[in-house]
Amino acid sequence: MKKLDMATAFGFIGGFACVIWGCLGGKGIKTLILFYDFPSVVITMGGSICAMMINYPMRDFKKLLIILKQTFLEQIMDNEAIISTFANLSKKARKDGLLSLEDEISNIDDYYLKKGLQMVVDGIEPETIRDIMELEIGEMEQRHTVGIDMLKAWGGYAPAFGMIGTLIGLIQMLANLTDSSQIASGMAVAIITTFYGAVLANLVFNPMAAKLSSKTIKEASTRDMMLEGILSIQSGVNPRIIEDKLLCYLSPKERSGYLNRESSKAEGAMENG
Q1: Listed ranges 51-55, 189-193, 238-242; the one with the highest mean pLDDT
Q2: Distances, alpha carbon 236 to alpha carbons 16, 22, 87, 147, in Å
Q3: Orientation of helix 126-174 relative to helix 47-55, angle to 10°
Q4: Which residues does 168 contact at the CB level (< 8 Å), separation at least 6?
Q5: Which pLDDT belongs to residue 18?
Q6: Alpha-carbon distance 200 to 191, whole Å?
C-alpha cells in the first residue's frame, strides 16, 4: 500500500515558494515576468529531455513519469507491525506446524512476505528460498537504481543546457553591441537559462534521486528482515528469539516503543485473565 509522501510534497511546494518569493523581491507579481523566457524554457527542458533520450533506451525513458511519481509516494511498511506478525506466525507454526500457516497467508497483503511464507508451507529447501528471495531484493534494487540514475543524469543535463542557453544569449547580445540599450536586458535574458537549470537540478531532479535512493535502502532493509523471519520460522526457531533477532532491524527509538507496547499488551492480558 502506498500513500502520499508529505515530506516530498511539502519540500517541493516550499522550495518553489522560496524561489518565487526571492524573485518577487518585495515587489508586485508582475516582477515574475522578468524571470520568464520561453526560448530559455525550450533550451533547458527540451534540451535536457532530448539528452535523456540519447542516454537511455526508449523502454527506460518511457518510465520517467512513473519514476517522478514514485518520489511523491511512500510505501507503507510498518516494521513494528511486521515483527508482531512474525511473532504470531512463529507461535502458530511452533504449536500447529508449518502447514497451519496456509490460512494466515491469504490475509497477508505484501507480495514478498506472502511468497516467502508460501514457499515455507510448500516445503521448499531453505537455501532455495534464500536464493529466490534475495534475487527478488536484488531485482528491486536494480529497477530502482535505473530510476535513480536517470534523475541524477537529468540533474546534470539541466544546468549544462542552462549554460548552453546562456552562451547562446551572450552571442546574440554581443552581435547587437551597437544598441547599448539592449545590452542590460540581453544579459538578463541570457542568464535566465542558467537560473532554470540550477533550480531544476537542485530543487527537483537531484533531491528526487536522493529520495528514491533512501526509499530503496529502507525497502531493501525491510525485505531482509522479512527474509530472516521467514527462514527462522522454517527452521523452528523459538518465537522469542525470532522477535529479538528482528528487533535488530529497528532503530533504538522504534525498538523501545515496540517493547513498551508489547509489555503493555502482556500486562493487559494478565489483568483480563
Answers
A1: 51-55
A2: 54, 62, 12, 39
A3: 140
A4: 43, 190, 193
A5: 92
A6: 15
d(CA 86, CA 104): 11
Q: How high is the mean pLDDT of the chain?
A: 87
Residues 126 and 234 sit within 8 Å (Cβ to Cβ): yes
- Cell numbers standing for residue 85: 506478525
Is the pLDDT confidence value at 224 over 80? Answer: yes
Residues 3-21: pLDDT tens digits?
Answer: 888 899 999 999 999 999 8
CA nearest neighbour of 48 among 32, 33, 70, 64: 64
- C-alpha cell of residue 221: 532493509
Q: Are 8 and 72 in contact (CB under 8 A)?
A: yes
SS3 call for 148: helix
* Mean pLDDT along residues 198-225: 93
What average pLDDT does range 44-52 have in this prediction?
94
- List alpha helices for the chain, DSSP H: 6-24, 38-41, 47-55, 58-61, 64-70, 79-96, 102-105, 111-121, 126-174, 181-199, 206-235, 239-247, 252-272
Residue 191 CA to residue 37 CA, distance in Å, equals 10
| Amino acid (one-letter) located at 221 | S
Stronger pLDDT, 225 or 258, i.e. the higher one: 225
In one-letter notation, the amino acid at residue 82 is I
Distance CA 198, CA 210 (A): 17
Question: Quick one: cell of 249?
Answer: 532491524
Contact present, 188 and 205 (Cβ < 8 Å): no
- Retrieve residue 262's grid coordinates: 508489547
Q: Rounded to an integer, what distance in angstroms lies between the CA atom of residue 6 and that of residue 2?
A: 12
